[in-house]
Amino acid sequence: MMTELLEIDSVEVRFGGLRALAGVSMSVAEGTTVGVIGPNGAGKTTLFNAITGIVGVDGGSVRFAGDDVTGLEPYRRAQLGMARSFQNLGLMLTESVETNIMASLHLSADYGVLDPLLRPRATRRIEQHCMGRAVDVMVRFELMAYRHTAVADLSFGVARMVELAGLFAREARILLLDEPTTGLDTSELATLLEVLSTARNDGHTSVVIAHDVGFIIELCDVVYVLAEGRVIYSGGPQEVRSDQRVVDSYLGRAS
Asked: Among residues 123, 120, 166, which one has the least CA distance to residue 141?
């Protein structure tokens, strides 16, 4: 029996008189990949912001690994094992690919400012472990050729892969990926699909927002469709295209 890692119960988010999320409920079982699709303005990114604590909720609750995290600060949720990407790149543009990925591992670098002097061997072991993880994800995301290249000198698609590689390096309990396919060419898209599919087969947990319905259907175990801040469909990926509510509110427009 699968354990629910993330549980969203009747979450509401309001911005003034606008109700961005109107009682959204969803669950993510550990070891599964869940897709979230819907038209622009449906509340998809707001949902991620509510899950990670970037915006407060006006009703409902967020539970992670069995604990109510509704009132926790974003950094505390990150410490518990949530990792997310944003639609806009969150990278240090003047730094190299390797430096950006190493920076994403700061939560794993369990030593203080004085430890390099007081505990040099232990500090070196931690840094070597982090470097090993960074190299591993650079290989998986086909980034080794750009290892020492500044992010500002990369195409947007390659920079997006750097951001995703940094998330994977953290070995978080759940990945929340907001439009990871944006800006990727066909080759990069295939690499991303392979990496995420392998992660799912290895038991990792992910939630993916994407406009590419074919990508979501091929990748995900469960799909949620949002429209006007509400869940209008939840179920198997193969059935989503035939659901009339989804066709009327989203797929009909997308086509």
From this structure: 166
Strands 230-235, 222-227: parallel, antiparallel or unpaired by DSSP?
A: antiparallel
255: pLDDT strictly greater than 90: no
Specify the pTM.
0.86
What DSSP assignment string belongs to 38-78? Answer: --TTSSHHHHHHHHHTSS--SEEEEEETTEE-TT--HHHHH
Q: Edge-to-edge strand order for the sheet containing 18-29?
A: 18-29, 4-15, 59-64, 67-68
Q: Is residue 194 part of a domain?
A: yes
Residues 24, 137 within the same domain: no
What amino acid is encoded at 60 in this protein?
A: G
Rounded CA-CA distance 147/152 in Å is: 13
Residue entry with tokens 């009682």: 23
